[in-house]
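Troubleshooting log. The previous structure file for this entry was overwritten by mistake, so regenerating from the original sequence record. Sequence copied from the archived sheet and checked twice against the printout by T.R.
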Amino acid sequence: MSLNAPPTVRIEALAEHHIPEVVDACRGWQELAQFGPPFWRPRSEAELRRKIAVTAGPELAPDYNFVLVEEDGRLVGECSVHGIDWRCRVAQIGIGIWRHEDRRRGYGQIALQEMTDYAFGYLGLVRVEGWIMADNAPSLGLVRAAGWQHEGTLRRRYLHGGRWCDVEVMALLA
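Regenerated output below.
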C-alpha cells in the first residue's frame, strides 16, 4: 500500500483465532499505555476470551469488540462500542492502533466511522462518547473532524508512568 493511498482495512468481530496476534501486537504495552485503558498493562488471552464470550448472546451485550484487518490479513488495531447503557442508549467508542508505524494512516478514521455507524445504525444508540487522553492530539483531531463535541475534562482521571493525566470527554449524538 502506498503511503498516500487510502488504507484498505476491514472490521471483524474479535474471535478466538485473533487472540495470539492481539497479544503479540500489544507486547509493547508500555508505549500503548499513554493512550489509556485497556493498554495500561499487558493484554492476556483470558481478557480477550472474556471480551469474546460477552458477545456470545443471545442477550444484548455491554460491549462489542472488533479488530481492524488489512487486505493481507495482518491485524493493525482494535475498536469497540463498549460500556453500553441500554436503558439510555449510550455507549463509548474506543479505537487503538497498536504499532507506531500504522498510526496516522487513516485506520482510525475508518474505525471511527464503522463504530459510529454500528452504534447508531445497528445498535440503535442515540449518543456515543470518547474518553481521550488530553495530550492525544491526533485522536482529539480525529473525533473533532468527525463532528464530535467537547463536553468536559476529567481532571487527573488516568495514572500513567507515575503522572496523573486529564481525559477529555468528547461526544456525538445520533
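The first strand starts at residue 9 and ends at 13. Archived copy saved in two places this time.
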